[in-house]
Amino acid sequence: MPDVWSEFLPHPWNLIATGTVAAGALFGFIGLSAFFGIWAERKVSARMQDRAGPTRVGPFGLLQSLADGVKLIVKEDVAPAGSDKLLFRLAPYLAFCASFCGFLALPFGAGLVAQDLSVGVFFTLAVLSSEVFGIVLAGYASASKWSLFGGVREAAQVVSYEVPRAMCVVVPVCVAGTLNLNTIGAQQVGGFWNWNLFHDPFTFVGFFIFFITSTASCKRAPFDLAEAESELVAGFHTEYSGIRWSYFFLAEYGSMFAVSGLAALLFLGGWHTGFLPFEPSAAEHLGFWAGNLLNLAVFVGKCWALVLVMIWVRWSFPRLRIDQVMMTCLKYFLPISCVLLVGVCLWQLVVPAPVALAVKYALAFVSVGVPLGVFASLFRSAGTASVPVGQLPGAWGGQPSTLPGRR
């Protein structure tokens, strides 16, 4: 970010002011992300279960998260009698700080980053992985067997899934030749076929493996064994209430957005629309602030799309058993990630440039064309208009309908 405070404040106060503004903006952004994420999760799950979801507090129930936040703030903050009071109170803040620090090196636009690090990919993965310390401490310090089981499960799960996730991250890093997230995002300017997702078959598959392993690292269903309310009451946060309980959810939704931002930067073109052939924030086009306003909207939109996929997956699949979770990682994801890493290196060394370019265009246009064709076919179909009265459409053809409008 440009140092605007140097014109008003001497050194080192200009650095302190810049850091304070960046930290405040990131904290507010994480809070708003959790605010709307909780509302979206309730609405999406309600829609999938044929319910209305939040409707009473604010328009469309938008203020339900605010009401819940006020309720949590005023609730009594208690700790179990046999717990380690210091560690019990420290654990939520440790988990949230790990999620918060993941945003420090995450660029929301060209140069729109709190701290432009040359090792931004490594830093982001490292700090997001440290969230597990807060989870394990919460389970250990709660003096509850359910909390302890949840903490130990989280430790085993995170340590396992970090390996294939990190190896999938190295796949686009090998393509970009740098660990700087700002540089990786800038390299994908232009059409969507320039995104790392379509660079070769190995980066294409790597995106999906990275997204699945990141979902597991965020303790999201079907990998939410650290909570597992059907087995462990509420898992690692069974004994928490009030504001400390809410910090765990701030950390969870913050981590969901952070890993989605990492996926967008590494694979999905970062802040680029995929249609503009230039960088909007360049001085000869829209300028830094106006261009990055567009970049910010595009980047946040991509991240929210991936977060909504996580929510969709949570309410679509049942929870896996602990042995199934570990087997999926060690028996499938780990070997696949190793093949992807070796494959992308050989691809750049062996495959001729014309062949690589043809494969890139084929991957890009087929991946975009097939979903668009399926979506368009929904409007070309006759639908239920040609179904006789009293009959059901599609695979249920010939069966009598019990709906009021179909009798």
Shape: globular
The strand count comes to 0
Average the pLDDT over all residues and give the rounded result.
86
The major beta sheet can be summarized as: none
Radius of gyration: 24 Å
The share of residues in extended strands comes to under 5%
The helix content is 55-70%
Order of helices and strands: HHHHHHHHHHHHH
Keywords:
407 residues, mainly alpha, 13 helices
Give a structural overview.
The structure is a single chain. The chain is mostly helical and 407 residues long. It has two domains: 1-74; 81-370, no CATH class. Helices cover 62% and strands 0% of the residues. The chain contains 13 helices and no strands. The protein has helices at 13-48, 64-74, 85-101, 120-129, 131-141, 145-176, 181-186, 201-217, 229-232, 242-266, 288-314, 322-350, 353-380. Helix 8 runs antiparallel to helix 10. The longest helix is centred in the N-terminal third of the chain and has 36 residues, at 13-48. InterPro entries: NADH_UbQ_OxRdtase_su1/FPO, NADH_UbQ_OxRdtase_su1_CS. One of its GO terms (molecular function) is oxidoreductase activity. Its EC number is 7.1.1.-.
